[in-house]
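lol ok so funny story. i was supposed to be doing the assay writeup but got distracted and ended up predicting the structure for this chain instead. priorities right. anyway since i did it might as well share w the group, maybe its usefull for someone
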Amino acid sequence: MKFCTNAVTIERLGKVVQYQEFMLQRIIMQEIFTVIAYPVVWLICTYLFKIESGLAKLLISLTAAILVYVLIGIWQSKKGEEKDDSN
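and the output, tada:
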């Protein structure tokens, strides 16, 4: 009986580790896209829109980066809810 309990515990731990790895991948993806969004929007403001004000570029770039972060979070949340509903 003790062996069976240990096997179940090990199986549960395996599932927990898989879930943690999955969540870490999602967080890393969200952070990478946010980090990429900031300089890309800065360059777009500089060369495409010809904005010369550093403060304006800063505010627009930060807003875009935060927006990317929030939108990816919402998308991942909905994706997680759909996955939970299917189980």
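Helices lie at 2-48, 54-86. Residues 2-48 form the longest helix (47 residues).
back to the writeup now i swear
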